[in-house]
């Protein structure tokens, strides 16, 4: 081993078993991609030992400068698949925004910028995160300092670009994570407008490289691809759609029995951390209140909450300060919390994409987890349809669930990665949003076992 490797500050190794979703590689190493030493240092210090299948496929192609449209399963390392080429290709000495990474939610923007910072820790590249719900003035001040990589949500990025506060005129890399969501009706027009601020090419091809990633790609992506991508290299690692490590169950219940059923699940399951999805913000708040009354610890989050509360909930849930999180589809995509071993659809989702992304919040990076769906009479056809569409089996829930399907063998051997008092990076919150949450849903129950964190991969302090 060469000297620099001996000097690395490596996290504890994650010894939990993993599935072929991440193990089935060609055997490449990060070194074989000819990356800068400083970038390799960041990658190894994040705890990455070797590339996952999507990283093996996409990193070399992205380094060659090709446009990419890539599809790979949830939790298999898509973020590093675009962040590593961005970090390798940008020039720290050029004081311009050279890469834009767009994501659909503010929480995902914070998480992604943290991945950029961790992997790029030794490179001297500056990353800025910009989203709605934060003070524009702070963004303006920040933009006076060097920014090489801008991570953000579309509305705020368009705002900054069209007011000429952020100059994208020399931005050579355009990344969209959750690309199908970014091209849905909600965002598509904004994305088209943002791209008008990018350098324009006079010859064939674009003056910038585009990297599009998601686990789901409905047809909506096709028209964007034809219009904006140049000879895109297409990667599809979804020979099957659901994760090998996640076992899916359903429980048939009447609507009014759902809470009782959840209570039973809480008492029977060995939950390390859980995410519980509802289909409306009202139901999120109501359920969080009920769970707290049942004396289980719980937070909630949805898009109608003030940003300060959303950030606090997200940050503290990631730290493992609270066991259960009730949320809307705000946190369905991209959110990466390795300690989550149980996902519960308190309300069954309407479509297969949402279902897939929701259950993919557990079983991260090839680990094990379970998804439990509470199904009422009107959901039954939808359950059947989603099962068919995804080619997967959702089984009736048994009286006892085998712990080996979702519980880490020896939780105490799992090191604690988080510094609990670390405050998340990001912008300050606009004054009118600095109200305290009316109810934060947190209620630690006496005698409840502490949450067991898992070894940190990319976010050692977040
Ligand atoms: N090569 C690697 N070795 C070890 N861990 C890794 C590696 N690459 C990524 N990870 C870890 O795997 C987890 C999932 O990665 P990531 O969030 O990028 O998945 P994703 O494919 O974007 O999932 P989703 O579709 O849900 O957004 C993260 O905790 C990340 O740190
Ligand atoms: Mg992702």
UniProtKB/TrEMBL annotation:
Molecular-function annotations in GO: ATP binding; ATP hydrolysis activity; chromatin binding; mRNA binding; RNA helicase activity
Residue ranges occupied by any DEAD-box RNA helicase Q domain in the UniProt entry: 28-56
First-listed, main subcellular location of the protein, grouped into a coarse class: cytoplasm
Gene3D superfamilies documented for this protein: P-loop containing nucleotide triphosphate hydrolases (3.40.50.300)
Low complexity composition bias: residue spans: 449-462
Motif (Q motif): 28-56
Domain Helicase ATP-binding stretches: 59-235
Transmembrane segments: none
Domain Helicase C-terminal: residue ranges: 245-405
Pfam families assigned to the protein according to its UniProt record, in alphabetical order: DEAD (PF00270), Helicase_C (PF00271)
Enzyme class: hydrolase
InterPro entries listed in its UniProt record: DEAD/DEAH_box_helicase_dom, Helicase_ATP-bd, Helicase_C-like, P-loop_NTPase, RNA-helicase_DEAD-box_CS, RNA_helicase_DEAD_Q_motif
Keyword terms, alphabetized: ATP-binding, Cytoplasm, Helicase, Hydrolase, mRNA processing, mRNA transport, Nucleotide-binding, RNA-binding, Translation regulation, Transport
Region annotated Disordered, chain positions: 417-462
EC number: 3.6.4.13
Catalysed transformations (reactions): ATP + H2O = ADP + phosphate + H(+)
One cellular component (GO) term of this entry: P-body
Domain of life from the UniProt record: Eukaryota
Location in or out of the cell: Cytoplasm, P-body
PANTHER family: DEAD-BOX ATP-DEPENDENT RNA HELICASE 50
Family of this protein: Belongs to the DEAD box helicase family. DDX6/DHH1 subfamily.
Protein name: RNA helicase
Organism: Kuraishia capsulata CBS 1993
